Amino acid sequence: MYYSLFSIAGGLSGRQILGTMLVSLYMPTLTLEQKIQETIAEVQPMLGLHGGSIEVVRITPDRVVELRFKGTCIGCAAANYTLEYGLKEMLMIKIDEIEDVIAVNDEPVTHEAPAIPLPYQTA
After folding, report:
1. How far apart are CA 66 and CA 34, in angstroms?
2. Would you give the end-to-end CA distance of the chain in angstroms?
3. Bridge partners of residue 65, in order along the sequence
4. Which of 8, 73, 89, 95 could make an SS bond with 69 (beta carbons 3.0 to 4.6 A apart)?
5. Cα–Cα distance between 46 and 93 in angstroms, integer?
6. 47 Cβ partners below 8 Å, 6+ apart?
7. pTM of the model
8. Residue boundaries of the structural domains of the chain
9. What is the pLDDT along the chain (123 residues), one digit of tens a residue?
10. What secondary structure letter does DSSP report for 22?
């Protein structure tokens, strides 16, 4: 069976695929922390669209990356999904040295979830 690069890459644009490939070639010259920071920087704009962000807390001796969600990501129902299927996957694919990625948030939720009317609700 024939698979194109685009079907394997989940519908990414050619520019995104090329960017990922170039970053992968460039990354061997960086430290582990620099590799993580550069990869996180790719995701920050998407989180920022929703009023959130993420920061690296530390990298453990066991090579576990501890992240802290900030802003509206704190308490967001999609934060765990973003971590597991976005950040963790992206970091572990790009950076072989990483063993795991976890969130270490302990801050209380300081905002209300935005009210989004559903199509069948009346005003």
Report:
1. 15
2. 51
3. 59, 101
4. 73
5. 19
6. 53, 54, 71, 73, 82
7. 0.65
8. 32-109
9. 333 434 444 445 555 555 555 555 555 688 999 999 999 998 888 888 888 889 999 999 999 999 999 888 888 878 888 888 888 989 998 898 999 999 988 665 555 655 555 565 555
10. H
Q: How far apart are CA 83 and CA 74, in angstroms?
A: 12
* Backbone φ, ψ for residue 37 (5° rounding): -60, -40
Q: Which letter does DSSP use for residue 109 in this model?
A: P
Return left, alpha or beta for 11; rule: phi > 0 is left, psi -120 to 50 is alpha, else beta. left
CA angle 113, 115, 82 (to 5 degrees): 45
Helix/strand/coil (H/E/C) assignment for every residue in 50-94: CCEEEEEEEECCCCEEEEEEEECCCCCCCHHHHHHHHHHHHHHHH
